[in-house]
Amino acid sequence: MPAAEPVPTTPPAPGYDDSERAAVHRVIRERRDIRNGFRSDPIPNEVLLRVLEAAHTAPSVGHSQPWDFVVIRSDDTRAKMHELAMRQRDAYAKSLPKARAKQFRELKIEAILETPVNIVVTADPTRGGRHTLGRHTQPQMAPYSSALAVENLWLAARAEGLGVGWVSFFDEREMVRELGLPEHLEVVAYLCVGYVDEFPDEPELLQAGWSKRRPLSWVVHEETYGRRALPGADPHDLLQETLAGIRPLDAKALGEAWERQKRMTKPAGALGMLEIISAQLSGLSRQCPPPIPEPAAVAIFAGDHGVHAQGVTPWPQEVTGQMVANFLGGGAVCNAFANQVGAEVCVVDVGVAGDLPATPGLLPRKVRPGTADFTQGPAMTQEDVLKAIEVGIETARDLVAAGNKALLTGEMGIANTTASAALIAVYTGVDPAEVTGRGTGINDETHVRKVDVVRRALALHQPDPADPIGVLAALGGLEHAAMIGLILGGASLRTPVILDGVSAGAAALVARAIAPEALAACIAGHRSAEPGHVAALNKLGLRPLVDLDLRLGEGTGALLALPVVQSAARAMHEVATFDAAGVTEKG
Ligand SMILES: Cc1cc2nc3c(=O)[nH]c(=O)nc-3n(C[C@H](O)[C@H](O)[C@H](O)COP(=O)(O)O)c2cc1C
């Protein structure tokens, strides 16, 4: 323990009094990015001057003050910039999954032509000479400093009743050329400034359902990353916090859903399973009708398996990493299905054996490069299991905060049906011979060996189903643990989780052992041709929505089920009730 610092005897420099402090926090809270409702009232020079003074007072690296502000009022220049932004808007829209693109079409992302003043904020990376204090290690400190000037400008503008909208839909170099800026400058921000009809209470993107606020408690860590704690609170463990947030379906919303089903213009029960799904979605969201689970994202967790060494599959281990590249390149079946149903594909390396190159769209979250061979010892440590579960929880948080309203499980891992079979045998009590399938297609000899591998592993580890983390450490895969995290995370965020095939079934069994209520968030997307999956679904009491002999993984079965789940929710919104439609009910 370091020696305690003596408490100073003189008081520290004073802060502000209560009302001044409240004013500071008010402007921080009420600053908004504005794109709608701008007015054409001119901005008086003295007001603009105060706002620019505030910007110019920002902190900067080595006090280099690297910013310049180009104030643009010309119709011509604004028209040119508007055209550039529209081009980028189109390019971005084309890159989006269908459901996102639909949402994006409704969004306004700039107000270049509607505002009387546009301000370009630049950074000069050469300002202050070669030896600018602090910039030598991190050249990006120059644009960071200019970004702080933007925030000052934004806050001061809010205090003046001026709205500001930041537009980043530009190719930065194209912009430098079009604006005739010196080539050595970087454009940090393009701001649309003007008086507004009103300042919305919440970010416009949040109001439009594009994103959600992340709570402060998710992002404050005590001493080391991962020990999340708000000042004064004890550090909490991500898994424990997640488990504490898992609650049963809301009885009131469930009741309303059943009631509404009866009044919809269709014979009672005529939508079969879809009525159950829509009631589940109501109970989960605590809303009737429930939100339509769109947009949705499939999280594909990739990991390798030490048990591959036992010859349980003819596929070489490198295929896991190669398929990850295929997912990222858009060439896999999951990509085709995701395109068809408008879902986002999120690829997570939670434990691929080899190093994967950084690629846009890949979340590098490797806990370890593959598990160990579980016929020889534990697949991994309990610490690894917890880390991989956390990867899944954080993926759920990120995808939900980014506006996704349904999560789909996906996975990739050569040899992972062997680990799935072992987990299913533990949690169903069914003999390994009955739950061990042919995975990617193996011959009789390999199948016999695979069953024997599972049997030997169970004999070696004597897994105790009451100790799910221990079971995972002994027999699981990193992608199983991450899928469990996704299920638990989804359940705690009251977001439906559509399960894919046999590996997701295995993960759901373990998730249920950790938190039985988590199952309330789960929907079985499909039934795979793997025998273990049937055993898992039976044990879970889940009825699959799609049954087409798929045995691929990658989230493909869950993706096919997504429109079914969405249709169930949409029916609750759009189907008229007997009284509203004037249809006579059955006598
Ligand atoms: C670096 C940066 C770039 C941004 N670019 C855009 C943009 O191109 N178009 C847009 O509509 N909003 C843009 N915004 C605004 C954000 O969408 C907005 O800050 C966020 O949704 C939170 O809302 P709030 O600022 O009202 O709190 C940008 C914000 C920042 C900080």
TrEMBL record:
Please tell me the species this chain comes from: Streptomyces noursei (Streptomyces albulus)
In this protein, the active site sits at E554
Q: Which Gene3D superfamilies match?
A: 1.10.1610.10, 3.40.50.10210, NADH Oxidase
Q: What is its biological role?
A: Catalyzes the synthesis of alpha-ribazole-5'-phosphate from nicotinate mononucleotide (NAMN) and 5,6-dimethylbenzimidazole (DMB).
An MF annotation (GO) of this entry? oxidoreductase activity
| InterPro entries hit by this protein | BluB, Nict_dMeBzImd_PRibTrfase, Nict_dMeBzImd_PRibTrfase_bact, Nict_dMeBzImd_PRibTrfase_N, Nict_dMeBzImd_PRibTrfase_sf, Nitroreductase, Nitroreductase-like
Encoded by which gene? cobT
- Can you state which reaction this protein catalyses? 5,6-dimethylbenzimidazole + nicotinate beta-D-ribonucleotide = alpha-ribazole 5'-phosphate + nicotinate + H(+)
Outline the segment boundaries, as ranges, of region: Disordered: 1-20
Q: What is its EC number?
A: 2.4.2.21
**Ranges where the Nitroreductase domain occurs:** 28-195
**Top-rank EC class of the record's enzyme:** transferase
Q: Name the Pfam families for this protein.
A: DBI_PRT (PF02277), Nitroreductase (PF00881)
This chain's protein is named Nicotinate-nucleotide--dimethylbenzimidazole phosphoribosyltransferase
Pathway membership? Nucleoside biosynthesis; alpha-ribazole biosynthesis; alpha-ribazole from 5,6-dimethylbenzimidazole: step 1/2
List keywords of the entry alphabetically: Cobalamin biosynthesis, Glycosyltransferase, Transferase
Q: Domain of life here? A: Bacteria
Family per similarity comment: Belongs to the CobT family.
